[in-house]
Design brief:
heterodimer; A: 567 residues; mainly alpha; 6 strands; B: 418 residues; Alkaline Phosphatase, subunit A; 2 domains
Chain lengths: 567, 418
């Protein structure tokens, strides 16, 4: 099977990795008690940590972190519950999406569907006029549903930009991608907010097993990977069937007409569309992506057995809120064997929990997930050293994500010179880091999220279950880079959609070119601007007399240039 | 116009510069270092249109010779008298009348009963499979058009080799080979109103990226600046369609116009991709008039205008339409159709074996239906796509484009002239 992880080389036959590992050993033995950044200066260490554990530094952050000690700041970030985040909490209250429960959203969604249907029926009455189908979406209910979906995306950007608990937000993004769900698929349009808010967010630094079980039980994942309609062949629900097919179109209910003939034919068709057997989709992705990894040693036979274990894990119909439901009637009570482990006959919902616990503590899972974490925090092709350190911490703590991360941040690979500024920012990281660098103040409209989308990463809209990629080649293409330059120029001109920027408080306008370049370097790039970038910007400023214009150009080039694309 | 000397000099310089730095970049550099074997203007081009939402193949290419068609669709069937007959058995929906001359001059073919071997009726899954080219496998990271680009590198000397028209790169073009997403040709590049200021800013960014960086950051930005430069020479703001071609207003017509423009600019377009929406006709789809008819008229008029505009250049161009699945044979309770299985696709262009409805027609008899209700798939979409890649674009390694699928010319529907 093709998979991004599959492209990477094995650990033993890669000379470059061996060299890196060797360097790590030398580094360790030279200073066995070293807890931090080796040859990096305190400021460079702070920049690196702020680039990786956070969405880049705000003006002043680097000095603050360097002064207090970078390892202390990392420890603080690993304990977000002790960090005060009152300013973000105030901002979050402006998003009324957070006042909607999953049940509310399900109801709103059904209302929007009904309004849409009625609009279409009304249009049918006027047969001379056949407006395009999307006009039917322009109902008050439909617009409200769309606005809330926009808030969901914007909230992700705003939290990433404003949170003091930066590492927590980085991990929310990491796990949202690791356990990817596509917002555009049917009922996931209204299941997604509770998935982010209740399933992912509370567990990003807890035990991996808890997070895994929470995603498995989430209606969003059940729907996205089709497990909700996975049933034992031949099983039938005890009560008249809810027309499951309607759920695929987003939970639109079907009312059976009074005319008995027509009602009967509709019911028959609904029956025909009842799920007929097991669906392997979730079972496969659970092992391939969420836990063991594609080379994790499972077989197609295991996939089928896991699918049998998950039969009956389903969702309540939207009129009843769309929550998790276990359907005993659909569950396969026979004996199963997964990865050589016996699951005796006669069990119900409990055997899947046993399976998830088993998968969560498998060595293949530890390695696969640790490697993905290291690809996020260390390098696209992470060295073995940090992966091994993460796996050891996993084993020691029973999969405590906080401790796994601590091990990565303490590993020499994390601080190795070749891994500093070696990763290219994703579109989300680029936009959020730019917002932070210029201290922009985002609003609650979806416009900032739309900028992220235009750069290629529409949030919650990655269709495939592998989530947005972490590797630079997936993000760097010519169109995308031009789009980043355009976004940079817009920010510098104070035209960033959805966020107010006060450039005067950031970089004072000045006619002195050297002073301007120095101020931009300090504010935007925390003093890491390359000599080449300095020279080019200085040259470009040579014939611009208006200080404000000069400042806009310098900031635009700094944000859109190569230095700012790296982290 | 051949590839400008400027691009060549730059690509060569970058290739040398990057040696020994970044293995991935070497791959990219190799793309640009290979000389084109054909002059850009003689290159075969493939234009793909994805009809998102699952087009009703049975009302697009109407099997008017089958009594069952009329019995199953009492309210939405296209009446016999209004079908544009093609071969006595099949006919075009009347809204597609603009395509009849192209059928008559044998540059238009239809393939019926084509689709996916996977049984899913989810738009999301089926589109995903049609774009990844791996039905049933969701974890495939890239699209089949991108895999094609990766395996056939001799055309990869231009940033315009594979272009998607839209704000984002679609799944079908996602992957490691360089591709371009263009929302609006006229606005491609840095968005500064005054030309002088725009040129200046472009040069500034070019200088920033040049020499300062290695690897993908350098090559991607260079590809972008080269594209901007070439496009400027092609002058997209001054475009006038040729031969009196009249594109429909709207997204589809505008998309086809921009593709024609890019092809005529000789910037080396080999793959162009376009999306069309609005085909999910569950409610009130209409028969010879109505919602589906309006969408089909937009499609037919766009394709006809494109062929007229390109004129002689259609010799090297194939337009392929695709849709994730077809719709139910039986009309539903809302004068529409629900998600079905097989659908129909068009192939248009000089290399097309036109004037034929290709593929084995399974008929509408309930005994021959898929799961007892839908039109059965008799042509795997990969056989049609594979044939076009092999016989039109000259792909030699189809197995690399469609992993897990053994392409067999004996199963090709015969869409391209031998």
């Amino acid at each position: 099977m093709l998979k991004s992880d599959g492209r990477t080389v094995g650990r033993s036959d890669n000379p470059r990795m061996a060299v890196v590992a060797l360097a790590g050993i030398v580094f360790l033995s030279a200073s066995p008690t070293v807890r931090l950044s080796g040859q990096l200066s305190p400021r460079d260490s702070a920049v690196h940590a702020l680039n990786r554990l956070a969405y880049g530094p705000r003006p002043g952050d680097v000095d603050r972190v360097a002064r207090g000690g970078v390892m202390r700041w990392i420890d603080e970030q690993l304990a977000p519950e002790r960090i005060d985040d009152a300013a973000l909490a105030t901002r979050e209250r402006q998003f009324d999406l957070l006042n909607y429960s999953r049940e509310d959203l399900a109801r709103l969604y059904l209302d929007a569907q009904r309004a849409r249907r009625e609009r279409q029926q009304a249009q049918r009455a006027d047969s001379m006029m056949s407006p395009p189908a999307d006009q039917a979406e322009q109902t008050p209910e439909g617009l409200r549903a769309r606005r809330l979906a926009g808030q969901l995306q914007e909230l992700a950007v705003v939290r990433a930009a404003l949170a003091e608990r930066q590492l927590q937000e980085v991990m929310v993004d990491f796990w949202t991608n690791h356990f990817n769900v596509f917002l555009g698929k049917g009922a996931d349009r209204f299941l997604m907010p509770s998935y982010v808010q209740e399933t992912i967010r509370p567990r990003v630094l807890g035990k991996f097993a808890d997070l895994l079980i929470a995603t498995a039980r989430s209606p969003a994942m059940m729907f996205y990977l089709d497990n909700w309609e996975s049933v034992t062949p031949g099983s039938r629900p005890p009560s008249p069937a809810f027309p499951l097919s309607a759920m695929r179109r987003g939970g639109q209910g079907v009312r059976f007409p009074r005319d008995p003939m027509r009602a009967d034919s509709l019911r028959r068709r609904a029956e025909q569309r009842m799920p007929q057997g097991i669906n392997e989709n979730y079972a496969r992705e659970l092992m391939e992506l969420h836990t063991l990894g594609v080379d994790g040693g499972y077989s197609q036979r295991d996939v089928i057995e896991v699918a049998r274990i998950f039969t009956g894990w389903s969702i309540a119909p939207p009129p009843r809120g769309g929550g998790f439901e276990f359907h005993d009637w659909a569950h396969d009570r026979g004996a199963k064997t997964v990865l050589g482990v016996a699951f005796p006959a006669g069990h119900g919902e409990d055997e899947a929990l046993r399976l998830l616990t088993l998968l969560a503590s498998s060595p293949a899972t530890m390695h696969h997930v640790s490697r993905r974490l290291c690809a996020r925090f260390v390098a696209d092709d992470p060295p073995d050293g940090c992966v091994d350190a993460a796996v050891a911490a996993w084993q020691r703590t029973g999969g405590d994500i906080r401790e796994v991360l601590r091990a990565i941040f303490h590993s020499p690979d994390f601080w190795a010179a070749q891994n500093v500024r070696a990763k290219v920012k994703t579109p989300l990281e680029f936009v959020v880091s730019a917002v932070r660098a210029v201290r922009a103040d985002p609003d609650t409209t979806a416009r900032l999220a739309q900028v992220v989308a235009r750069l290629g990463e529409p949030l919650y809209l990655h269709v495939a279950p592998d989530g947005y990629p972490e590797r630079q080649e997936d993000w760097l293409n010519s169109g995308a880079l031009l789009a980043r330059m355009n976004a940079a120029v817009a920010i510098a001109a104070g035209r960033l959609p959805g966020a107010a920027v006060d450039l005067d408080s950031l970089v004072p306008a000045t006619a002195d070119r050297d002073a301007l370049v120095a101020a931009v370097n300090e504010a935007i790039l925390a003093g890491t601007m390359s000599e080449h970038t300095k020279t080019v910007i200085r040259d470009q400023l040579s014939d611009i007399s208006d200080p404000r214009q000069a400042r806009a150009l310098a900031i635009g080039l700094a944000l859109g240039g190569p230095d700012f694309q790296r982290q | 116009m051949t590839i400008t000397r400027r691009v060549f000099v730059k690509s060569g310089g970058l290739a040398l510069f990057s040696l020994g730095f970044d293995p991935l970049f070497l791959g990219r550099a190799a793309y640009s270092a290979i000389r084109p074997t054909v002059r850009p203007s003689d290159r075969p081009t493939l234009v793909c249109l994805f009809q998102r939402g699952a087009v009703d193949g049975l009302n697009m290419i109407v099997p008017h010779g089958e009594e069952l068609y009329y019995r199953e669709r009492p309210r939405i069937a296209v009446p016999r008298g209004q079908v544009v007959d093609l071969d006595g058995h099949f006919g075009l929906h009347p809204a597609l009348a603009a395509l009849k001359p192209l059928w008559d001059n044998k540059s238009l073919a239809a393939v019926h009963a084509v689709g996916s071997p996977d049984s899913t009726r989810s738009h999301f899954d089926a589109q995903d499979y049609m774009e990844s080219g791996t039905p049933g496998l969701k974890a495939t990271p890239d699209g089949w058009l991108n895999r094609y680009c990766r395996h056939d590198q001799e055309h990869a000397d231009t940033p315009f080799r594979a272009v998607a028209f839209g704000p984002q790169l679609p799944r079908i073009l996602a992957g490691s080979a360089p591709t371009l997403a263009i929302d609006d040709l006229q606005a491609f590049g840095l968005r500064v109103p005054q030309e002088a200021a725009r040129d200046r800013l472009t040069r500034a960014f070019e200088a920033l990226y040049q020499g300062a960086t290695t690897g993908l950051l350098a090559s991607s930005s260079q590809e972008g600046f080269d594209a901007v430069q070439q496009l400027k020479q092609a002058n997209p703001t001054q475009y006038q369609p040729a031969n009196g071609a009249d594109y429909p207003r709207g997204r589809l017509g505008r998309g086809f116009l921009q593709i024609a423009q890019l092809i005529k600019a000789d910037v080396g377009v080999q793959i162009a991709f376009l999306d069309g929406t609005g085909w999910d006709t569950h409610v009130n789809q209409g028969s010879s008039e109505g919602q589906l008819a309006a969408r089909l008229k937009d499609l037919g008029d766009s394709l006809a205008a494109f062929a007229t505009d390109l004129g002689e250049k259609m010799r090297d161009v194939v337009v392929l339409t695709m849709s994730e699945f077809g719709r139910t044979i039986h009309e539903n309770g809302n004068i529409g159709t629900d998600h079905g299985h097989a659908t129909a696709m068009f192939a248009l262009g000089g290399p097309v074996n036109g004037g034929k409805v290709l593929g084995r027609w399974p008929g509408l008899d309930p005994a021959n239906r898929f799961e007892g209700r839908d039109l059965a798939v008799t042509t795997d979409f990969r056989d049609l796509f594979g044939e076009i890649l092999a016989r039109h674009l000259g792909t030699r390694d189809l197995a690399a484009v469609f992993p897990g699928f053994a392409p067999d010319p004996a199963r090709f529907p015969g869409a391209i002239k031998a």
